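Q: I'm writing up a methods section and want to include an example of the input and output format. Could you take the sequence below and give the corresponding predicted structure tokens, formatted cleanly so I can copy it straight into the document?
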Amino acid sequence: MDTNEKRVLVTGGGSGIGAAMCRRFAADGATVVVADMNAEAAQAVADEIGGVALTADVGSAEANEAMIDEAEAAVGPIDLLVLNAGIATGTDVTDTTDETWDTIWRVNVMAHVWALRAWLPRAIERGGGYVLHTASAAGLLTSLGSAPYSVTKHAVVSLAEWVSITHADKGITVSALCPQFVSTPLLDDLKDIPGGQKLAALGVKEPAEIADAVAEAIAEDRFLILPHPEVEQYEQNRANDRERWLGGMRKLQRHILSED
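A: Here is the clean output for your methods example:
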């Protein structure tokens, strides 16, 4: 997709990767709707790029449907839907409460389902559209220290694959963004998990770098977006020798949980 003169909706657009993508899409000539539960943050980004701000808490089906309705009423049919909002919470399966599981599942997975439910039939009827799912390298590998984050990000990648397979012939193009560590508020949440500080020290990119990688991939209609190139090798290692990969991940976990 060439995003020039396209209409783009970005959830979680008030900060981090979402805000960087909003800036990049606007610089490339798109009309951008900045959706975020933080109204002031959404408005600040929208004012900066000449876009439209929406206040949206994506944790319910009704809010997602209203978001799509309001965005299309404001700027017209959405050509590129960027499902970027997400949270990082929870630790071990033995410690994470049902309430925490429910919250992260609604925001990280069901928000994508609910937004697609509202947008996808319209896009198909119009002849096509593009959806970008922000997942994580954790969705291809795992997230040490946080079972809910790992599980939900795997689910997002799986959903993106399913939509691509099922609806490509109806004009729907899909990408899945799977970065490692990025300097965003979400990284601060991840640092709170056991060993999170050591994990983050493995290498952090800036949001603008991620946005550039996204723009390049969308221009090529590429499904998997890997701003950290090493993730591709990690994924290949996982697929080619699962037992060895698991052993390596256990070794890494022991390192990050050690006190030295």
